[in-house]
Design goal:
With 392 residues, the protein is of the alpha+beta class. It has a domain at 125-335: DD-peptidase/beta-lactamase superfamily (Beta-lactamase), CATH 3.40.710. 27% of the residues lie in helices and 16% in strands. The chain contains eleven helices and 13 strands. The protein has helices spanning 67-85, 130-143, 169-173, 188-191, 198-203, 222-236, 240-249, 290-293, 299-310, 317-323, 380-390; strands at 11-13, 25-27, 91-97, 100-107, 109-111, 116-117, 124-125, 258-259, 295-297, 336-340, 343-352, 355-362, 367-373. It has a six-stranded antiparallel beta sheet, with helices on both faces. A hairpin with a 4-residue loop joins β5 and β6 (116-117).
Length: 392
């Protein structure tokens, strides 16, 4: 591959006025290699901090006219602006269609007290979008021959409860294990503000009877993915945070992603709010969510993740097919797989105190819709579905 100067890059700029922000951009080039180029950001103060592997590595091509994509990008931006003005959204959104980024920008404030705007590089807690990363780590370890998803979880955890003997990693990945969901417990509201270790977190539910026999029912629960985090640590010999850093974030050039150890210091000032005003959400210590919901990221980094995952950088294609195959209630390994408007969509939503998120991938067209909000009353699922319905 050859590196070309910016003078060779062909861009179509959408003329959209923004409150102190540059305009969204659609790319007009065909990327060379396994990753499409990430375009310049639409933040007011800086361009996209793109790692070297993603910076403008492409062959020059003749510019193409894509008025339909321009129109769609304009429609999306106008829709998000209106929601923000109504007090129904604050956060960041990235939308890509046919390997072109239509919109990648922030709306509203990340921090009211500091007058800090949301941007495409704003770090948000991503809540349950953490689960696809945890599932991917398990599948990577299987691909490396270090575990097998059809084996009992007790093959990998010391001092495993007797009730967990019939539970396989497959059951945990698909929420069919029967382990009670600890975030539903009455005392969780009192415990979520204080830091906890992964072992202490698992102790809250490890000795409880199962809700149902493994494999006989589906019940979405965070306990399943906490146990998977413990397996990742036991098998890899690394902490959950270090394993994801070395095997997912760094290979995918996700420079603004990581494990939030609990106190939100990694968020660079982003605050979770209840609504459009300055009332803060409950400051949950995310060590209470661990491998079920403890990660932070940006819309740009999550786009890098989708591209790297589906281009085979992070997992062999056969293993990815297994992740994307629904088992019960349209849930595969860390992903929900459904049909929307006649199209298959692979996605995961997230919700926690001060954060509402949605990551959707439409594999047949290569469309991606990412919605990250630091406002608890945001309906990110509806926003993502609406935008997805407009894509060609």
């Amino acid at each position: 591959m050859h590196r070309f100067s910016i003078a060779y890059l062909m861009l179509i700029v959408i003329a959209l006025s923004a409150c102190g922000q540059r305009d969204p951009i659609i790319s007009a080039w065909s990327p060379v290699g396994p990753q499409p180029t990430i375009l310049p950001s639409v933040t007011p103060e800086q361009t996209l901090a793109t790692p070297a592997p993603l910076v403008a590595v492409m062959e020059p091509v003749q510019p193409t006219s894509t008025p339909s994509l321009v129109d769609i990008a304009t429609q999306i931006d106008a829709y998000l602006r209106e929601l923000t003005e109504r007090g129904q959204f604050r956060g960041a959104v990235l939308v890509a269609a046919q390997d072109r980024i239509l919109v990648a920008r922030g709306y509203g404030l990340a921090n009211v007290e500091r007058d800090l705007p949301n941007t495409a590089q704003t770090r948000f807690r991503i809540a349950s979008i953490t689960k696809p990363f945890t599932a991917l780590a398990i599948m990577q370890l299987q691909a490396a021959g270090k575990l097998a998803v059809d084996q009992s979880v007790c093959a990998y955890l010391p001092d495993c409860p007797r009730a967990w003997q019939p539970i396989t990693l497959h059951h945990l990945l698909t929420h069919t294990a029967g382990i009670p969901n600890y975030t539903d417990f009455r005392d969780f509201a009192q415990l979520e503000l204080s830091p906890v270790t992964p072992t202490q977190l698992a102790a809250r539910f490890r000795n409880l009877p199962l809700d149902f026999a493994p494999g006989t029912a589906f019940r979405y629960g965070n306990s399943n993915y906490v146990v998977l985090g413990l397996v990742i640590e036991a098998v890899s010999g690394q902490s959950y945070a270090d394993y994801l850093r070395d095997n997912i974030f760094l290979p995918a050039s996700m420079i603004n992603s990581g494990y939030d150890s609990g106190d939100a210091s990694a968020l660079n000032g982003t605050v979770g709010y209840l609504g459009p005003g300055a009332e803060r959400s409950i400051p949950i210590d995310t060590s209470n969510l661990y491998s079920a919901g403890g990660l932070y990221s940006t819309v740009e980094d999550l786009y890098r993740f989708v591209i790297a995952l589906n281009n085979g950088q992070l997992l062999p294609s056969s293993a990815l097919v297994q992740m994307y195959t629904p088992v019960r209630n349209d849930y595969g390994y860390g992903w929900k797989i459904e049909m929307r408007n006649g199209r298959r969509v692979i996605y995961h939503p997230g919700f926690m105190s001060g954060a509402v998120t949605h990551l959707a991938y439409y594999p047949e067209k290569g469309h991606v819709v990412i919605v990250l909000s630091n406002m608890e009353r945001t309906n990110a699922d509806a926003i993502a579905a609406t935008i997805g319905g407009w894509l060609p």
